[in-house]
Amino acid sequence: MNKFLKYFLIFLSLLLVVVPVIFAVILLKSSQGAFEHSYNDQDSARQSNIRESKVDPSKDPISILFLGIDDNSGREKNGQSTEQSRSDAMIFSTLNTEKEQIRMLSIPRDTISFIPKVGYYDKIAHAHAYGGPKSSMDSVEATLNVPVDYYVRINMEAFVDAVNELGGIEYDVPYDINEPNTDDSGKIKVKKGHQNLNGDEALAVARTRHQDSDLKRGQRQMDLIKKLFAKAQKADSISKLDDVVEIVGKNAKHNLSYKEIKVLATSYLKDDIDIKSTQLEGKDDYLNGIYYYNPDIKNIQDTSNLLRDDLELPKIKDKLEFLNQRVIDFYGTLIPQTEIDSSLLRKSQNDSTSNDDNDENQASDNKSTDSDNQINNNNENSQQSDANQYENQRDDPNQQNSNQNTQQQIDPNQQQPVENQQPNAQETPTNQY
Q1: Is residue 391 part of a domain?
Q2: pLDDT tens across 53-77, in order?
Q3: Stated pTM of the model
Q4: Which of 92, 158, 395, 429 could form a disulfide with 105 if both were Cys (CB 3.0 to 4.6 A apart)?
């Protein structure tokens, strides 16, 4: 196989290194079986809710959501399946052949986002645990108002094996690191300074966020892309690429067809492809006593328009196109784990098309009070007994979902708290955010 084609495949892999895992598209003849193992044809027919028609990578700019899943063998032993796993990190990428450009957006895992699958706000990393890749794609669309055309999902152990196969990578570690290893059975310690990292050490560098932040973590992950791409291009790595592809092919799921992958490989073999990166800006926030990364709505709009321009879509001029802003205008804040009234999907809470809508808007003044009471009730209930338990549970959506069963939630029809009501994602339109 043409070595430049292999470079492109490894580049796609490196996009996922930062999530932190590897995606390798299985195009080598010896890897046909691995491709079939990684391809999910059930998701292949998905069309973005924001698109009028399904994209064609041979002529349209496209987007790919890269998902790194924390489903190590230690978690599997405890009964956690891949579909129940959180996304350890997310990178949304736009690919535009006319611009000869790839843009990567690192989405902090704690970003507060509307999760259409369950109908309420939560950490965007939890979307995958609620409904797999499709739920993650829908949540990114709800947050950014940009179409997500494809996804690629791989586990972190594939990253470790692939980096080891390439003989490690050179990296200047910013500080001493002490992180759990891939199966949570021990610790990986990495000293500050320039050194050659093996797979476990590189993964620890990509994952750590205890001494800085999710944003710094995302930047390190972006830096690793370039380092690993350079390593894969070295002459002594060429002979190892087949094995790398085999390793990751057995640990991947995606909805790119074999034909679509070949089109992408052909389109992005050029040496002058411009690789850009960006991040969401925001602030640390505590809602219902739980930590979230709360993105700035103006930055979301600017970022969305940047991505929409890449995808050759019209820019959004009104911030009310974003659900976050409409919820803030309606409730006064974002309220995690509270069912969102479908009327919030209108551009403005004052929009009305019927008497029922007018009645609904008449009651909206009471909603803010009800929702404030809801937050107080949530804090008083036993979702966690103290701040330490909040911290221990903050990354477990399955446990939070279980706690939600005993939590009071707002019924938009009755305007009264209702015990044990489960959000009904079917009632929440997902074709327009």
Answers
A1: no
A2: 889 998 999 999 988 886 655 555 5
A3: 0.68
A4: 92
